[in-house]
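Q: Give me the 3D complex with pyridoxal-5'-phosphate.
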Amino acid sequence: MNTVARGPEFMVTRADGVWLWDTSGDRYLDGTASLWYCNVGHGRTEIADAVHRQISTLDAYTVYGDFSNGPAVELSERLAAHAPVADPRVILTSGGGESIETAAKLARRYWAVMGQPERTHLISRTGGYHGLHGFGTSISGMDRFRNGYGRLVEDTSVVPHDSAAALEAEILRVGPERVAAYFAEPVIGSGGVYPPRDDYFTEVARICHKYGVLFIVDSVICGFARMGNWFGIERFGVSPDMVVFAKGVSSGYLPLGGIVVSGRVADPFYNGEGNAFMHGTTYAGHPTACAAAMANLDILEREDLFTVSLEVERHLDVALQGLASHPLVAEVRSGVGVMGGVELTEEALTGRGITTAEVFAEARARGVIVRPIPTSLLVSPPLVITWEQIDHLVSTLSAALDAVA
Ligand code: PLP
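A: Here is the predicted complex, encoded as structure tokens.
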């Protein structure tokens, strides 16, 4: 907030591919795909054309009650066809946080409808980020997002992100008959880019199944080819009860998100009076947002960005690991998905008072956008980035580190 107050603001005027321009006409490499979402790169005219066509035909109309529209149905069917969820159903929203609210309420309501209303407890992971709405704030794995709002949603707890045993211990501490669901990102994103251990999700899926706890995957960052597949979690060979998505589904050209729910969890709401899931939002199933998403998915499929991204992941990993020997760097986390985290040493941060904000500013002054969090610099470029551009991204980050050293 101090940076913003000092001004002036950094005004972005135009974007194309992996590049941005500011008001002075200076060009920057978008090393973060905006906020983790612009998977197909900026300036795709075919998405603009699809939006124009749809908005000129049916701009928007509610999907309340039995209302529906072609783009919402088509998008839902397409997502369901690729989701690693049994007998999948889709609920559409306008973003990630809204989808987390939907998933959390659905989980609690599911247990109420199933005659186990005491199952309300929600477990999440340290470093996990699930947006900043009510439930998302309450299950945040980062204290800085939770503190200062009075009493949050009750019956939540956070377990260490790298230990399936800790999840099981927490379920037993709370009492399995009180636990509704467990939330996890395939790779923790905003919390610092933490890939899971090899067997983590197999163990988690087994534990959730053993105690009847709903397993909810937050793929808001990891979906739509950022991990070489549709929802990220496929990489670990498990099938969750719900998958939450947003960001890359439309590459952010228009706001869109949602959840894929297994039929087992969705069906009880249709059985019997009084079991309805009384939840929804004004822009759910917005036809123009859905048209943007479908044009985005067309690009992902036609350009086979699912395969391309695995190559990008390897090149980015090799390039970023080159920073591991930098004297200011404690650790480089990369190699699972097109994303990376460069953690500064304790000595640099606390000993010498170097901030990641300074490194970010030095990188931006050199024409590259990275993302600072308290102890790391994060990168998550558009999937269309070239090897040369990856080298430029990483060598500029290296120069920024040198500049603050
Ligand atoms: N979940 C994850 C994993 C995210 O990274 C984010 C946003 O960064 C969200 C949820 C929240 O999404 P939104 O900002 O669209 O509400």
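A quick observation: Residues 47-302 form a domain with the Aspartate Aminotransferase; domain 2 fold (CATH 3.40.640.10).
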